[in-house]
Amino acid sequence: MQISLIDLAIVIVYLVGVTLFGAHFRRGQQNLRDYFLGGRTAPWWAIACSIVATETSTLTIIGTPGIAFAGNLGFLQLVIGYLVARVILCVVLVPQYFQGEFYTAYQLLEKRFGTRMKSAAAVIFLGTRALAEGVRISAIGKVVSVAFGTGETLSIVIIATLTLFYTFEGGMRAVIWTDVLQFALYISGSVAAFLLLFHKIPGGWPTVTQAAAAAGGKLTVFDFAFSLTKSYTFWSGLLGGTFLTMASHGTDQTMVQRLLASRNERDSKIALLASGVIIFAQFALFLVLGVMLFVYAQHFALTIPGGDADKIYPQFIVHSMPVGLAGIILASIFAIAMSNASGSLNSLASSSIIDLGARRGESGAQSLVRSRKLTLVWGIVLGVLGLVHWGPVLVAGLTIGSITYGATLGVFLLGTWNRRANETGALIGFVVGLAAMIAIKFLTPLAWTWYVLVGTVITFVVGSLASIFAGRKSAEVVAPLTS
Q: Using an 8 Å Cβ cutoff, are 431 and 446 in contact?
């Protein structure tokens, strides 16, 4: 074992404590509104923290410093797009989600196009979210392998089981309030890591800036070159980041469910905008940590296990942090893994029940029982997917979502901006958009940061044209009957 018994005790106490804390929210649950929307009682600031905690995964905590350690601060250009997207969503999609009693994002598609379109979008969400969350869960194995010097399988099983327990019991209210607790913990741990690095590096910040400059501009943020094959440029960040976040926060059930859990439309918008400010500061902190780790490694022995940059931050925590603080930060990494998994479990169950498995005449209590059963099923699925080795975790997680997000966002915008669009046209656009992005992924060198933008445009254009053609065919069939 790499960590001390005190640090191990801190991690264990945290895991047990947060599990019991989340489970106690079972009280008062009577129907799907309670289980999937937390009764819409959470304040906007709790929703904002939950959004950030969901957007921030173990991939982010260990992958973002790894990106800056191996490169520079260019990833921050993508985060600029994250901010722009939130403003657009507050104008375009958020108001529509509060024009009815919606439980999932795809009920909005049903209202506009019909059941087939809702079901198609829900199926793609379920597949994409399950795979992406599998990547996130597998990331915790990298931390454990460094911290405990053991295999990854047992840790993944433990995290998945504990998270499943409190999500099964507490529903969305448990998800939101454990997110708040976990957000506070991992931010505190990250700030502590920053201060410790600042103290340990000889010469402090001047040494960091000098060493970073000598290494080829590791503090560089902006790259204004226009390239379709380079992941982190200003243009791919602004445009690609905007479309990526419009899709992830505006059409992905995991995020939309938090917006729907707000007390009203106004709170939902405030929470979304506030989360943008927090996420920008947070990514900046994680990237700077990566640069500081690079400089620290030049003065002290800090090796990269297996040459995997994703393990550099866990390696620093285990070998360079004082006893007690290391345990707190390791607990914070476990915290965010549990936060992501709990949110995904609840959203996967909600979409399965509402979008694909709704039953007429079923009572609220019966629906609640089925929802818990589906939460259990998805917990097993995510645990299995977490055992797969996915490669560099942050890019893998973002790429999986980016392949399907474009088609989904394209359909939502088609329904919002094209009044003549119909269900047949939307379905054709959706299928073509998905097929095109799979082909682009495997047959072209296009950077993943452009995927959502390209997929959205293809889906919107094809859906619009197909709607025109489908409308004409429909008119030809109907005309003789009305003459």
A: no
